[in-house]
Design goal:
Number of helices of chain A: 12
CATH architecture of one domain in chain A: Orthogonal Bundle
CATH superfamily of one domain in chain B: Dipeptide-binding Protein, Domain 3
Strand content of chain B: 15-25%
Largest sheet of chain B: 11 strands, mixed
Radius of gyration of chain A: 24 Å
Helix content of chain A: over 70%
Largest interface: A-B, 97 and 93 residues
Distance between the termini of chain A: 10 Å
Strand content of chain A: under 5%
Shape of chain B: globular
Helix content of chain B: 25-40%
Structural class of chain A: mainly alpha
Largest sheet of chain A: none
CATH topology of one domain in chain B: Dipeptide-binding Protein, domain 3
Number of strands of chain A: 0
Distance between the termini of chain B: 62 Å
Order of helices and strands of chain A: HHHHHHHHHHHH
CATH topology of one domain in chain A: MetI-like fold
CATH class of one domain in chain B: Alpha Beta
CATH superfamily of one domain in chain A: MetI-like
CATH architecture of one domain in chain B: Roll
CATH class of one domain in chain A: Mainly Alpha
Number of helices of chain B: 20
Oligomer: heterodimer
Chain lengths: 306, 669
């Protein structure tokens, strides 16, 4: 068991190293001057000095320095936000994203699973059709549309929630709900398909024939198997939710990590790009391992394959 | 791991019996964890009371280091927490007294300014503001490593600054070359050239009887490469050479700086010598790059082997010195000398300014605390303003801004105010390259540029396509904003003349002209399409749009890989030369590659004139060459920015530089 965990961990480290190297090459290769702001060009001398300051005048030294930093979990200074280090930026943004993301995933599971189960049990009824339609809307509607609508109705008109800003509990629900919508839709679909599969199988027929109540059959027997695909989806979904969403953060002014994924690339902010990508990759790897462990524990036959 | 494994394969017995219980236990665990997170969130969330005045800084602060900043929103914070020798009037933006008595003593030739710093000028920790603080701040603004976009303020205007910076920069490049040799990589041509000319390096090589001969100027890159390889093959202790070059340089540095025209005559007198008479110098002294810097920052200077420089020969301070609560090596947080001090700054969320208790005007300041909030999204900031959470918005640039402009114009929203900004949105014609991306570039011919200019109906672009209430531009310098200067009238739409010029240039009715490419960013597509339509209909020329992401766009434009490219220019100081200098030959911001002897001569001669009327006339003549004759640029509009000032706020005035001092603001809720 320990050996297996160790091998998984080392595989994770190798994956991270590959992600780092590929990202670094892309960071160096993309054109654009990270120091130029707006239209004004700085004098060539000033730019030369800045490139020397950050060791960008020598790609190998640059690579080595960043690698050494990354191993120490230090992503160096931000080129865009001079007064902050990339670590400070990630440290201030990641907890915010994680909080919103966790809440969103929680909402998604709490809402998505019952919807999926219900529509599978009442297959082809009006309930099934309605939830399916709603789920389709949830998948198709971009979060920035839903977010803006929620903001306009509940914050601007009804004054239930504050508009923008950050720091109180009241700031949490709207972004979390918006972020959870696509996840709800996916989870509901996965649960429904899984449940339909399970409900049609032999052991359920046996269970029904034994005279068990519908409740027990559905939740105790069918759901346990139907939940497995949802569980495997939850790994990448949680990683995605925890690292924030650019659109949701933009609409609600949430100071999370999602915005930095986009802005750091647009600004050619090397350290921040590398930091964000590595944080995301690490989260993805860790969560996938966790989910696999959970999976193996629920279904012992799989443990050999983990 | 299988994804979406079919449940049919599972006999019931395989599924763990205690699974459901365990899952509920798990859920409970997750919920508990989550509750802890929430509780910690509540515990750490700010319970600060609302400030007297709250405003939104769009897109956030990039830096609060005055020597390094170049964004308007950063300037706004800086000028509220620091104070230069002069300041800007909040309505006219003319120079007004700042930390020094006004006006300073100016020598007869207009090249020597002597500022007497006020006795009651105080830092936020009570220290008196001295001339040395200004020299420290200004020096940071030009030193390689710290200097950024506005280093040219010093090198262009202050005596000896350009020479000092060139000397410093030379050593930085030499050290870069030596480091490359030490690390076994190849020095660049520039590095080799400077290495060969550097006295210390030369001496060392001669001592080791090594002959270093540079290839001739026209040599191929291979010759340079060969030289670099020869050098790298030498068994030399490059590390020791680096250290001795650096030590020599550090020994000489203060002596060299003393030759720059900045001198403290006692604690409270600063004498500045300029390279030439400069009618707008008192405007520059209010600019953030020329703010003072408190001496406590010196403990945060990065040192290499005890020298006040980094190993790269640069002047670098710990970039976190601008934080109010940064305490390290005896540094006690940011100290400023303006009406406010920074007391709290949370990245990408907010900053709080509190009055500087030692400022001379502290008793007259009504807003004792000011909150700056950062909203990445202007729409959200408008909603917050509508909900009453914010008192002031400095920018209403949203996709529906034409609607806001209409509300402002009709008087339905008197709180939306128009600020005609000292800035121009224009298009560059590539005047330099006869061929762009394999296509012939017709715009090297001034007649073609003029024809394209004459064919454009700018009014319809400004009033119909954008409808944001901007001012139509026929000149580069905005009219009625710079005191004492009126730009020339410029060219109005004249289709017959445009057709005639185009025919004269060899393209009658547009025949024979390959499709023209217009380079822009995704924000300019609407204007680009309108222009393309006008040129197609009026001149018979096909124009293709090529929209690029902003950084790629900037690089492509700077390399001249375009025929027509969008551009904008925001004035740095209240003088036409802040615009007109851009189009002189060899200027770093001259993206059009325009080069005219007559224009260069007019600008150069205007710089030496002291009489303001004669000077303005000369500059106007120069601008007429630009916008009526050679047409290297096509001005479209002068920006008008909308701001929102809540009705209960007084003391904020629209102005051309979007300069909003909060010390005059009062709020009567």
């Amino acid at each position: 068991m320990i050996l297996r965990v160790l091998s998984r961990l080392s595989a994770g480290v190798v994956t991270l190293a590959c992600v780092y190297a590929i990202t670094f090459v892309m960071v160096v290769a993309i054109p654009g001057n990270p120091f130029q702001s707006g239209e004004r060009k700085m004098s060539p001398e000033v730019e030369q000095a800045l490139r020397a300051r950050y060791h960008m005048d020598n790609n190998w030294a640059y690579f080595g320095e960043y690698l050494a930093g990354a191993i120490r979990l230090d992503f160096g200074p931000s080129y865009t936000y001079n007064d902050w280090t990339c670590n400070q930026i990630i440290a201030s943004a990641l907890p915010v994203s994680m909080l919103v993301g966790l809440l969103a995933i929680l909402i998604a599971v709490m809402v998505g699973v019952p919807i999926g189960v219900l529509s599978a049990v009442r297959r082809d009824s009006w309930l099934d059709a309605t939830t399916l339609a709603l789920v389709m809307v949830g998948i198709s509607m971009p979060t920035f549309v839903v977010g803006s609508a929620l903001l306009t109705v509940f914050a601007v008109h009804l004054h239930w929630f504050p508009v923008g800003g950050w720091g109180t509990l009241a700031h949490l629900p709207l972004p979390a709900i918006t972020l959870s919508l696509p996840f709800i839709a996916y989870i509901a679909r996965l649960t429904r398909v899984g449940m339909l599969d399970a409900l049609g199988s032999d052991f359920i027929r046996t269970a029904v024939a034994k005279g068990l109540s519908t409740r027990v059959v559905v939740w105790r027997h069918a759901f346990q198997v139907a939940f497995l695909p949802v569980l495997s989806y939850l790994g990448p979904a949680t990683a995605q939710a925890l690292t924030g969403s650019f659109a949701v953060e933009k609409v609600f002014g949430v100071p999370g990590l999602g915005q930095h994924f986009v802005n750091a690339a647009l600004n050619r902010d090397a350290g921040l790009i590398l930091g964000c990508v590595l944080v995301f990759a690490a989260l993805l790897i860790v969560l996938n391992m966790l989910i696999d462990a959970l999976y193996a524990w629920i279904d012992p036959r799989i443990s050999g394959a983990v | 791991m299988a994804y979406g494994r079919s449940a049919v394969d599972f006999p019931q017995s395989v599924v763990h019996a205690p699974v459901v219980d365990a899952m509920f236990r798990n859920l409970l665990l997750i919920c508990t964890l989550f509750l802890c997170l929430l509780l910690s969130f509540v515990a750490f969330s700010d319970s600060q009371p609302r400030a007297d005045f709250t405003y939104v800084n769009p897109s956030g602060i990039h830096t609060l280091d005055p020597a390094r900043m170049s964004w308007t929103q950063d300037f706004r914070v800086a000028l509220n927490i620091w104070e230069g020798l002069t300041s800007w009037d909040r309505k006219t933006t003319k120079p007004i007294p700042g930390a020094a008595h006004f006006p300073p003593t100016i020598s007869d030739n207009g090249r020597e300014y002597t500022f007497a710093i006020r006795d009651d000028a105080r830092w936020s920790n009570g220290d008196p503001v001295t001339a040395y603080d200004f020299i420290r701040g200004w020096r940071r603004g030009m030193e390689p490593g710290t200097a950024m976009d506005y280093a040219f303020f010093f090198t262009d205007h202050i005596e000896g600054a350009a020479e000092y910076v060139a000397w410093r920069n030379d050593v930085v490049v030499v050290l870069g070359g030596l480091r490359a040799l030490r690390d076994g990589s190849t020095p660049t041509e520039d590095q080799l050239r400077r290495l060969a000319n550097h006295a210390r390096v030369r001496r060392k090589l001669t001592n080791d009887s090594i002959e270093l001969t540079l290839p001739p100027d026209a040599a191929s890159p291979y010759a340079w490469r060969a030289l670099a390889d020869d050098l790298a093959a030498l068994e030399l202790d490059w590390g020791a050479l680096i250290d001795s070059v650096l030590a020599d340089h550090a020994r000489e540095i203060d002596e060299r700086f003393a030759k720059v025209g900045l001198a403290a005559l006692g604690d409270q007198t600063l004498r500045v010598r300029l390279t030439r008479p400069c009618s707008y110098f008192l405007d520059l002294t209010g600019f953030p790059t020329l703010l003072p810097c408190h001496g406590s920052i010196e403990v945060l200077r990065q040192r290499y082997q005890g020298l006040p420089l980094t190993a790269e020969g640069l002047v670098v301070y710990d970039p976190q010195w601008t934080k109010p609560n940064y305490r390290r090596h005896g540094y006690d947080g940011l100290v400023t000398n303006g009406p406010y001090q920074l007391t709290d700054w949370v990245f990408k969320r907010r900053a709080r300014l509190t009055v500087n208790p030692y400022h001379r005007a502290v008793d007259e300041i009504s807003c004792r605390t000011v909150d700056m909030l950062e909203y990445d999204n202007v729409s959200a900031s408008i909603m917050a303003y509508e909900a009453g959470a914010v008192d002031f918005l400095t920018d209403l640039g949203v996709p529906y801004d034409h609607e806001l402009a209409r509300l402002s114009r009709t008087g339905e929203r008197p709180d939306f105010l128009r600020c005609p900004v000292l800035a121009t949105y224009f298009f560059n014609f590539n005047c330099r390259d006869a061929e762009v991306a394999g296509r012939a570039n017709p715009f090297v011919d001034p007649r073609v540029r003029k024809a394209f200019t004459l064919a454009v109906d700018r009014r319809s672009i400004v009033e119909t396509v954008l409808a944001r209430g901007d001012r139509v531009a026929y000149s580069f310098v905005p009219p009625d904003t710079i005191p004492g200067y009126q730009p020339p009238r410029g060219l109005r739409r004249n289709i017959p003349e445009a057709k005639r010029l185009l025919a004269e240039a060899g393209f009658p009715g547009g025949v024979g002209m390959a499709p023209v490419e217009l380079l822009c960013t995704s924000n300019d597509v609407r204007v680009g399409q309108a222009l393309a339509r006008m040129w197609r209909q009026m001149l018979g020329v096909r124009v293709e749009l090529r929209a690029l992401e902003s950084k790629t766009f900037a690089g492509t434009k700077a390399r001249g890989e375009y025929m027509i490219a969008r551009a904008n220019w925001y004035a740095d100081y209240n003088d036409p030369t802040t615009f007109l200098d851009c189009l002189t030959t060899g200027n770093g911001n001259n993206d059009s590659g325009y080069s005219s002897l007559r224009y260069d001569q007019l600008i150069a001669s205007a710089k030496l004139l002291v009489d303001p009327t004669v000077r303005a006339k000369r500059l106007q003549e120069a601008e007429a060459v630009l916008v009526e004759q050679d047409c290297p640029i096509l001005p479209i509009l002068h920006y008008v920015q909308l701001i929102a000032v809540a009705p209960h706020v007084t003391g904020l005035h629209p102005n051309a530089r979007l300069w909003f001092p909060f010390r005059y603001v009062s709020v009567n809720r």
